[in-house]
Amino acid sequence: MSGTFVGMPAFPTAARAALGDTQLRRNLAHATQTIRDKRALVVAEVEDWEDLRLAGAGVKEAALRDLATHLETLEASLTRAGATVHWARDAAEACAIVASITHAHGADEVAKVKSMATAEIGLNEALEAEGIAAWETDLAELIVQLGDDLPSHILVPAIHRNRAEIREIFQRRMGDVGKAAPADLSDEPAVLAGAAREHLREKFLRAKVAVSGANFAVADTGTLVVVESEGNGRMCLTLPEVLVSVVGIEKVVATWADLDPMLRLLPRSSTGERMNPYTSTWSGVSPGDGPQEVHVVLLDNGRTRALADDVGRQALRCIRCSACLNVCPVYERVGGHAYGSVYPGPIGAILNPLLNGVSDEQTASLPYASSLCGACFEVCPVRIDIPSVLVDQRAAVVDSHRNDRVPSAEALAMKATAWAFSDSRRLAWAERASGIAGRVITRFSRTTLPGGRAASGRLPGPAAGWTGARDLPAPPAESFREWWDRTDGGQR
Amino acid sequence: MRVALQVTCVNDAMFPDTGKAVVRLLRHLGVDVDFPSAQTCCGQPMVNTGYLDEAVPVVRTFVRAFAGYDAVVTPSGSCAGSARHQHSIVAERSGDPALVAAVAETGPRTYELSEFLVDVLGVTDVGAYFPHRVTYHPTCHSLRMLGVGDRPQRLLEQVRGIELVDLPMAEECCGFGGTFALKNADTSIAMGADKARHVRDTGAEVLVAGDNSCLMHIGGMLSRQRAGVRVVHLAEILASTEES
Ligand code: SF4
């Protein structure tokens, strides 16, 4: 079974380890570049892409503004269509609901459609503890599950693996949990997919209960929507007798027509396709067709907490397309595991603190895991201003420490800097001191920048973070301010 | 037109030649530029690290120093971005309506250098001469927060003697990111190493950008690698003449 993120170190430590993994760096650079280019091509084809983004953001924003009403409408529509609606405050409640439905049917296994909500609540591990095996049927999820691994990407959880590694995992593990991989398995993508198909078919045909999430939940028609590429989702959604869908409350949209911009934005942003191969929609039970018992678990698990945050609530517009991960220069280098959550990358850096708060050190490190370059905002199909939310969550981290008995070195440094920057006379004094230091460094330095300026090489103590890999120019003997005063702005 | 130079704290303390170049360039173009000595910093180091309360007096100092000018010109995309897009957050936090009003008024008349030259003065040929092989890195905040577009390239293309070469993956972040460079030094350096590699691949002698903080990061790495590339701020190239 796959592992958990519990006990992960803070981002800088986890990132350092990841950065040393050369295979990971190469796999990620290749995969993110490929998908970035694909997305750019299909987005460029859409003339009114910016209008479409506005429309998408508008649909989700409108749904969030009146969330309670839309959820009640959704519950009523679903119930009318023959589905059973459950409400789950947190992960434990949601997992218990799924387990009890499975037990009620005497099943000891479930087939799963790829779903972020069930990954978020740790459903597989919870079911395992109840004696129920949960089989992932999405190819990438299967790779992660068989490899006892952790997901590192929202859309492609095994993005950190290359095909040689996948071949090895299939060969070593498939036989333990079902149909074994053929002995002569090669690492050709089509051959690997063929082995997965054989392995999974057995599970699809046997499973009595399926578990899914949903990309969208339409309030007025009581329709759930799953968007996918492989068709495994369609198998799970149609073959078993019982279907349980765990759906975050932010997935609701008001009307069927609201799906229009969303279904155009999502495939182009996520897989770089004009249209995804499979879009499954179902409204409750259809007699004689598909699952005859349909459950929907509406999940909060921190979403109302995020909704109450004026700046951060826009993160609930997220449609989990992964475009922000694929363009993120930090994600590209460290991969998903360093974020310590099923939600990695830029969206993870804001969503985890919004859902869970910033009281633990690992979550509090996430808003800082960004250079604020803004590439994520530029591609986000629902226009989530991730850099602004990151800064706001940094403020939340700082504010949570304002009453600490012993302030951190960073807090003291920031206060001192702000004090100096609040009055130009203080700054001028600091610059005179730095000018003196600059003269000393220039006199004794044996490092010279290209162009001739003296510099500091590797320094110990607090300067080590900068000078470990970068030469630092020596401060000039005279600041701009001093020059301006001395020469009357260069006129003398 | 009363024009003020916001030199930025980094340039004031570390790169005064950039400030001097802006003064020379603007005078050459007939603009009488002033340096209000009450100025300090735009507050970005505090804001971007999450210290909003600490940023309040810094932003207050900023708007006071630049009150009454028609235009505030700064040789930094990220400081212009901070004044235009972040001061309002700090002002809201202060709960002081006078500060909210002041930043709303100061932000829109704060220009990054290339914006001021192209949009306000309407020039792209500033009469510069710089006979070197140069590659340009568009910094993230000028590109994505301000949207300066190709203004810097249009200015550089008119420089006599210059040999401009394209930087591969130019729009990818260099990894500086303010306190990110210290708090996540390993990741910052990994990003910088790739940027430095792309710069070396161009065979350029000079790397130019509109922000000295990014250049300090990339240039510091290039220097450590003994790559033989120097970094120069856009203002210094535009202020170079045949005589200098
Ligand atoms: S934040 Fe935006 S870009 Fe990132 S996954 Fe969500 S919708 Fe996609």
Automatic annotation (TrEMBL), chain A:
It comes from the Bacteria. Keywords: 4Fe-4S, Electron transport, Iron, Iron-sulfur, Metal-binding, Repeat, Transport. This is Lactate utilization protein. Residues 479-492 have a biased composition (Basic and acidic residues). Residues 451-492 are annotated as: Disordered. The keyword Cytoplasm does not apply. GO terms for molecular function: 4 iron, 4 sulfur cluster binding; metal ion binding. GO terms for biological process: lactate metabolic process. It holds the Pfam family LutB_C. Residues 72-299 form the LUD domain. Residues 402-486 form the Lactate utilization protein B C-terminal domain. Residues 315-384 form the 4Fe-4S ferredoxin-type domain.
TrEMBL record, chain B:
It comes from the Bacteria. Residues 3-80, 134-218 form the Cysteine-rich domain. GO terms for cellular component: cytosol. InterPro entries: Cys_rich_dom (IPR004017). Pfam families: CCG (PF02754). GO terms for molecular function: oxidoreductase activity. PANTHER family: LACTATE UTILIZATION PROTEIN A, UNCHARACTERIZED PROTEIN YKGE. This is (Fe-S)-binding protein.
